[in-house]
Amino acid sequence: VSPHTSGTLVRLPDFAPQSQSGENTYRSRENARVFRSKPVVDVDPKCLLYIQQREFAATTPVDNSVTVLGSDDATTCHLVLVRHTGSGAACLAHCDGSSTWSEVPLIVKAVTSLSKDPAKEGRLELHLVGGFDDESKMSHKLSLSLLSAFQRQKEDIHLETCCITEMNDVLVDGAHRPGVHGIGINIKTGEVFPASFPHKGPAEELRSARTFTGGQMADIYDSNKGVVKIGPCKWSPNLDISFWLSQDDDTILKYLSTSPTAEPPHFVQHIKSTIQFLLEHPSSDSVFPGGQPQYYRRTEQGDWENVNQT
């Protein structure tokens, strides 16, 4: 995929219906290889806003609460980053294919709405990372859906990083794996890099429970207030899920993962802690009293704390 393509997005060469020249194909693979070879950065949680599956967040360089937007644990999922080079506004989303066609316009709008200063000319740039050559071809389907959805947008969007599916595939002991699982963007500098995030807060289990129970893509951050907003969302008591807490790792991977052989080591524990949270909070009303969201704000020490807002 050739970067710096004016006014449109080009298709993936290996599994799109239209082919590209050999030169563009070579450049695509080389750019992806270079991105995969970058060192993985362990991001300081005190400057981070972590994006979980089916979430997105947007902010600008003047944000005093967030320096890095980041997300990881992507196997068949794709990490989608749109940035405006003039304003520096950026939006990061963790997409799993649940509603790609409705999600992409939200991502683009999140950036354009923060980039209305006419004195700051620039362009929209797109970075796509994630997926691998999985047996079910879920990565392929999501790659094509995302590319097609971005092509339909009225804005000129320039594809800068395309490290997805076959271009993000590596062999480990003869098995296919994603080369890059996570990315971060430094909002102040615009640098995009492979990253990992030991801390996935705030409210990691609550946010995971929202997705686990069918929650759709959600905007979790108000950059003007520096506040993370979770919910409100609904789920019903379901004691049947306690069954999973007694199952072995292989069973959980087989039935609750789209890519059992490629999940990170903490996947099973993450699933179990999410289920435990739901069992401890069988009704969402106890988590969102009065139907009000949960709000979190950065403290002076750099941690996220729960705050009450009217």
From TrEMBL:
<feature type="region of interest" description="Disordered">
    <location>
        <begin position="1"/>
        <end position="30"/>
    </location>
</feature>
<feature type="region of interest" description="Disordered">
    <location>
        <begin position="288"/>
        <end position="310"/>
    </location>
</feature>
<dbReference type="InterPro" id="IPR026750">
    <property type="entry name" value="NTAN1"/>
</dbReference>
<dbReference type="Pfam" id="PF14736">
    <property type="entry name" value="N_Asn_amidohyd"/>
</dbReference>
<dbReference type="GO" id="GO:0006511">
    <property type="term" value="P:ubiquitin-dependent protein catabolic process"/>
</dbReference>
<dbReference type="GO" id="GO:0005634">
    <property type="term" value="C:nucleus"/>
</dbReference>
<dbReference type="GO" id="GO:0008418">
    <property type="term" value="F:protein-N-terminal asparagine amidohydrolase activity"/>
</dbReference>
<protein>
    <recommendedName>
        <fullName>N-terminal asparagine amidase</fullName>
    </recommendedName>
</protein>
